[in-house]
Amino acid sequence: MTPRQQLRTMKLIRAFETALAVRRDHGFQLLSSGEEAVAVGLCAALGAADQLLTGGRSIGFALARGLDPQRLLAELLGKSTGLNGGVAGRGHVNDAASGFFGAHAVVGGNLTIAAGLALARQLAGEKSIVAVAFGDGACGSGALHEALNLAAIWRLPLVFVCNDNQLSVSTPRKYALAPAHLADLARPYGIPARTVDGMDVEAVADAAREAIETVRSGRGPAFMECLSLRFASHSTTARETRSKPELEAIRARCPIRAFEAKLIARGDLDPAQVTDLDLAIAAEIAAAAVFADASAPPRLDEALANVW
Amino acid sequence: MTPRQQLRTMKLIRAFETALAVRRDHGFQLLSSGEEAVAVGLCAALGAADQLLTGGRSIGFALARGLDPQRLLAELLGKSTGLNGGVAGRGHVNDAASGFFGAHAVVGGNLTIAAGLALARQLAGEKSIVAVAFGDGACGSGALHEALNLAAIWRLPLVFVCNDNQLSVSTPRKYALAPAHLADLARPYGIPARTVDGMDVEAVADAAREAIETVRSGRGPAFMECLSLRFASHSTTARETRSKPELEAIRARCPIRAFEAKLIARGDLDPAQVTDLDLAIAAEIAAAAVFADASAPPRLDEALANVW
Amino acid sequence: MSGEKPGKPNTERLFFREAIARAVREEMRRNARVIVLGQDVGAFGGSYREFDGLFAEFGPARVRDTPVAENAMVGVGVGLAAGGFRPLVSITYMDFLMLGLDPLFNYGAKLRFKSAGRMTAPLVVKTTAGAKGQGVAHSQCIESWLMGVPGLKVVAPSNPADAYLLMKAALRETGPLVYVDHKRLFPGAGDVPLDEEVGAIGVAQILRAGTDVTLTAHSFMVRVALEAAQRLADDGISCEVIDLRSLSPLDVETIARSAQRTGALLTLEEGQLTCGVGAEVSARVAERIGPLRAARVGPLPAPVSSNPLLEAAVVPDAGRVVAAAKALLGARFAAAAEDAIITNEGGGD
Amino acid sequence: MSGEKPGKPNTERLFFREAIARAVREEMRRNARVIVLGQDVGAFGGSYREFDGLFAEFGPARVRDTPVAENAMVGVGVGLAAGGFRPLVSITYMDFLMLGLDPLFNYGAKLRFKSAGRMTAPLVVKTTAGAKGQGVAHSQCIESWLMGVPGLKVVAPSNPADAYLLMKAALRETGPLVYVDHKRLFPGAGDVPLDEEVGAIGVAQILRAGTDVTLTAHSFMVRVALEAAQRLADDGISCEVIDLRSLSPLDVETIARSAQRTGALLTLEEGQLTCGVGAEVSARVAERIGPLRAARVGPLPAPVSSNPLLEAAVVPDAGRVVAAAKALLGARFAAAAEDAIITNEGGGD
Ligand SMILES: Cc1ncc(C[n+]2csc(CCOP(=O)(O)OP(=O)(O)O)c2C)c(N)n1
Ligand SMILES: Cc1ncc(C[n+]2csc(CCOP(=O)(O)OP(=O)(O)O)c2C)c(N)n1
Ligand SMILES: [Mg+2]
Ligand SMILES: [Mg+2]
Predict the structure, then answer these.
(1) How far apart are CA D299 and CA D312, in angstroms?
(2) In a domain, B300, yes or no
(3) Chains B and D: how many Cβ contacts under 8 Å?
(4) Does residue A300 lie in a domain region?
(5) pLDDT for res D348
(6) Pairing between strand B193-197 and B222-227?
């Protein structure tokens, strides 16, 4: 991804989620406004043959991985044209053919799966790798450590990507997790680990490239912690627990505006192009909504299909 | 415990387990020959009001904690006079009244329980602490990390004691666990951690005293790894996987003989006293066997007692 | 409980979540050893606000937010209970209890047994089961697994009064207990005794008397059962509805007596039928009164999608219960007297 | 299978553990994607030597020792399976499977569903259930929990031939499957087909024909059932013994037909009765053929002590089955003809 593509993807995520948030016909969603740089930075460094697994907060990662916004929206709205026929929905959307192995809404539940998938790649002698994204919340789970240990001892081609938005629902990471940096969790296992600014897409992409290079070269797993900020409440129906001033301060640190300003300052982008970009994205989102709305719901017999 | 008491307890454990090993009427047992210094060193540093939890390999710890060998043997042989009426048996013996909260044969299954018990002490404002012993095998389990994190964040009065005999059944620790030292596992959580020579009872006792002091003073948990050697196979019925020469080299490093020689060299013990000690222990073990053998099995209705 | 009816005397109208909070609050005031542990139970007040106000009143030592670590949460609860406290461990969704079964079953439920009665772990695990748009891994009802664990009790209230009464009873139990509520119960309100009262564990309740068929259910499915009973009444079938309330121990006596009277037993549950609550209820009743006509209603054997259409297709509803009752009664249905006496003894708001 | 009888033609006599090893070996030779993972499955060959020789033949990449980390072991198996391999994950004792239920149920069993059929996780979890002197946390039989999980299959062989045939079938399944064996089966030997054969999942087997009562069991309890049937025969009661073999799917057809013929159904299991296999078998049979006389035999509702006396007091034995059969048949028993024709169709060594 070029810097401009990165900016575009971040904007696409924001616009997609913003449009989704105002709709009332999807129960609720876990959005990632504020955290776009983590998804886009990581995906900028992943290859087409690599696989990405995420937790339940997955829309940003799915779009950054290049999934079709129309089919993603259709999936989240429970339509038959969705990526999974409208069956998986929020928290479980997947499209392995596009390198998005899938979201999984059990916190920490994707980590050992990712290790198994990485083992499959290793055994198959493939060069492609696996990345698994998870929140700070997942760092309290034993599954992370079991996966870290196995990945280290078997030198699995696996990048652990902690999107540390410093909150698990209402619980600040500092009340739930003892380590000074969550990247420290990887160190006992001898896994190279870094903490990066998750609000800076280029910093994330650089760190991801470095981590992925290590991993792809066969030296075993790597760990990166991306410090990010969640702009909205846990979900579209969850109560916000932070104060207004706190939230304002947080939202002032927009990774998209910051990157846009940087690109303009650098001369990589001019303001007129920004307008074009924004318009194009708005049109894309509108088209996605039209597509999804025009799509049929799944047939009821899908409820019993694909069980066995 | 005086050094002589420590020697005595180590010898008691060895003699107890040796006598048990040759019997055929207990199914099987998990013995700790070679690892006596860990149990005795730790218990030398624990106070009477403290509680100790262990894994399934628990005989050494139980005796070091001062449990009555007669009632312990009766328990392991399934007699009604056992510490738990012959119901708990191998792997689950307990005597909380004596500060031995209990063995638990699910690997890693005692760690979070210990954290809860430590929280109970903290909430009750008690000065007593909790120690939990576990093997290297348990270090692969997620439960350890969940417990470490909680202990650190809540500053629980809990000492983690890893009896690292470098084997889990047949699996060498180095093939199963990535960390260079298992004590490293505690570091991300900011928990003070040390690796000590588990074949040296005084080194273990010193480290345990230091750890327990930290913990008792309210500064939160501590972790110690004791490098020990298992002299026998995993259980009295398990196949031995190490070669004869390997085993000979291992058994040459006897913690009891080493300590005895040290005490004699230091002038704290003379060889005649050793003979007396050995005879006294042999008599004690014989008496335990007589006691257990003379005891009745539990009544069959015990099978349904104490369930609800 | 009583829907649009005016509140009964000596009751206050509370939402389900309020009934839980009140019970826990009263028990925390009464017993300084009651401790609440869970994800977001503190200032946030729990996912359904069922712990609202507790943090403010009792502070962070007694109302503790935990990391996302279900194994440790349950294990810590067991250790805390064995150490003399009475923890209530909140596991947000019952699906996640899978991660905490080892400490609950292998330590907590067996502690009294293995210590020959000298130790016990009186913890309450409170968890929310059931489908409400949350998808494959946040909708499961696994209470049937718990029912077969010796040493563990299980309750599942269907209305605010029972939510209150059973929570109070749970926090006074002498061993481990799982308290199962349901996402769809939280929006409901009902009459709860004004005075402090403690419920009885192990006692089912006949919510509606009937003569043609006995219908058992627990938790949210009780409402579905009551709806179905009403519809069946319109068709001239008199259905006795029993709210199990306590799954372990199970009040076989009450169910068997009813089934004896009606001669037919229909069980309803949201969890998978296979080796489920209904299979057990039927088996126990048959053991008591001999073979009888019985049928089970439950979800389709499939995961529960977050897609509302697919969810509704899987989870049982009143229509399916009505159909099953008619199929069960078969020939007798045709003969069923029109004016069966129907007494609504309460229940279901 | 055939006890002290001479081996049948085209069979070889193998211990239960050898039958497993042979099946896995053949499948590993046939399919390079079969991988064995577990604690001490490598050079050690597994707790019961049921993986003997595999490490030597296939090496550490395909026969992998793991740390003690059941959650990750199952999770890695699911990921490996979803990634195109066919892992066999060995969980030493079924009690420890509790630690791995989340990845197995919430990911593995639901993957095909949530990917709308595009992904699947064909892993085999092999685990050893049952009581044999190992105490409260190493003796449990929790197969009934697995039976209710949509998307998951469960088999439980009772003899070396089925151990072989079902393991081969398991390793060719298209989705996740749990293969349950039993500590007390390992010392047994039996006749196993000499030629490579693959069993059928979902098919029960009548091991002994009878006319008075149908007795179902699985795993080690099949031997207890056969012993009981023999004793009942001595008392003039003709007992048809069905080895369930496959718990999910369950071969209701075979059981129901038999129960239809005999008119009485007795179920036997070592796991807790409550919401257990027997409750399900009875319910399904009744759903098929209508109410019938049925009873369940299982362990006492208590943890299993490692104390051999207490263990024996809890776990069901032939005496209890005989008593239950007689109680079930009640009046009919008195009338039972002496010379019921008994055909031993095989089974039990
Ligand atoms: C095992 C488990 N426990 C609890 C939950 C409920 N839950 C859903 S999202 C969430 C927050 C997780 O926080 P984090 O991992 O930091 O991800 P974030 O929401 O911040 O993206 C929780 C606790 C869950 N889904 N799975
Ligand atoms: C959760 C769990 N998995 C597997 C086992 C089987 N098992 C019993 S003892 C043991 C070895 C554990 O090794 P370690 O913790 O180092 O203790 P050691 O035997 O060396 O004292 C194993 C794997 C178990 N008891 N519990
Ligand atoms: Mg977070
Ligand atoms: Mg060890």
Answers:
(1) 9
(2) no
(3) 108
(4) no
(5) 29
(6) parallel
B84 close contact with C: CB closer than 8 A: yes
Nearest Cβ partner for D79 among A84, A114, A153: A114
CA-only gyration radius of chain C, Å = 20
Distance, CA of C286 to CA of C128 (rounded, Å): 31
Give dist(CA A87, CA C307) in Å, integer: 6
CATH of domain D205-343: 3.40.50.920
What is the number of structural domains in chain A? Answer: 1
Give the 3-state secondary structure of residue C287. helix
Give CATH 3.40.50.920 domain extents, chain D: 205-343
Q: Residues D120-138: pLDDT tens digits?
A: 999 999 999 999 999 999 9
Q: Which chains touch A (3+ CB pairs under 8 A)?
A: B, C, D
Q: B37 and B13 in contact (C-beta within 8 Å)?
A: no
Is the minimum CB–CB distance between B117 and chain C shorter than 8 Å?
yes
| Predicted model pTM | 0.96
For chain C, give every residue range classified as CATH 3.40.50.970. 11-193
A112 in contact with D, Cβ within 8 Å:
yes
For residue range A150-185, what is the model confidence (pLDDT) as tens digits? 999 999 999 999 999 999 999 999 999 999 999 999
User: The domain spanning residue B157 has which CATH number?
Assistant: 3.40.50.970
B93 touches chain D (CB under 8 A): no
Q: Judge whether residue C269 has pLDDT over 80.
A: yes
Q: Which residue, judged by its Cα, is nearest atom 5 of ligand 2?
A: B107
Sorted by sequence, the CB contacts under 8 Å of residue D199 that are 6+ apart come out as D162, D164, D165, D166, D168, D169
Q: D241-280 burial, b for 16+ CB within 10 Å, e for fewer?
A: bbbbbbbbebbbebbbbbbeebebbbbbbbbbbbbbbbbb
Token pair recorded at residue A123: 């055994």
Query: Does A60 contact ligand 1 (Cβ within 6 A)?
Result: no
Collapsed DSSP state (helix, strand, coil) of residue A145: helix
In angstroms, what is the C-alpha Rg of chain B?
19
In whole angstroms, give the CA distance from residue D300 to residue C113. Answer: 14
Long-range contacts of B81-84 (CB under 8 A, 24+ apart): B81/B291, B81/B292, B81/B295, B81/B296, B82/B292, B82/B295, B84/C114, B84/C115, B84/C116, B84/C118
- Contact at CB, B150 and C74, closer than 8 angstroms: no
D68 Cβ below 6 A of ligand 2:
yes
Largest pairwise CA distance in chain C: 63
Q: Which residues of D134-163 are buried (b: 16+ CB within 10 A; e: fewer)?
A: bbbbbbbbbbbbbbbbbbbbbbbbbbbbbb
Distance A186 CA to ligand 1 centre (A): 20
**Chain C nearest-CA residue for D96:** C102
Tokens of A234: 């846990």
The CATH architecture one would assign to domain C11-193 is 3-Layer(aba) Sandwich (3.40)
Residue of A228, A225, A168, A222 lying closest to A198 (CA atoms): A228
Contact D321, D215 (CB under 8 A): yes
Q: What is the ipTM of this complex?
A: 0.97
B-chain residue closest to A152, CA distance: B178
**Domain membership flag for residue A302:** no
Report yes or no on B101 lying in a domain. yes
Structural domain boundaries, residue B158: 3-291
Count of beta carbons in the 10 Å neighbourhood of residue B276: 10
Strands of chain D (E only): list them: 11-15, 34-38, 63-65, 86-93, 124-129, 153-155, 177-182, 189-193, 205-209, 213-217, 239-243, 246-248, 264-268, 293-297, 343-344
C-alpha span between C67 and A176 (Å, rounded): 5
State whether residue B146 is helix, strand or coil: helix
Residues of chain B with pLDDT under 50: none
The CA-atom distances, in angstroms, between B224 and each of A178, B44, B87, B168, B178 are: 18, 15, 32, 18, 17
- CB of D340 closer than 8 Å to CB of D233: yes
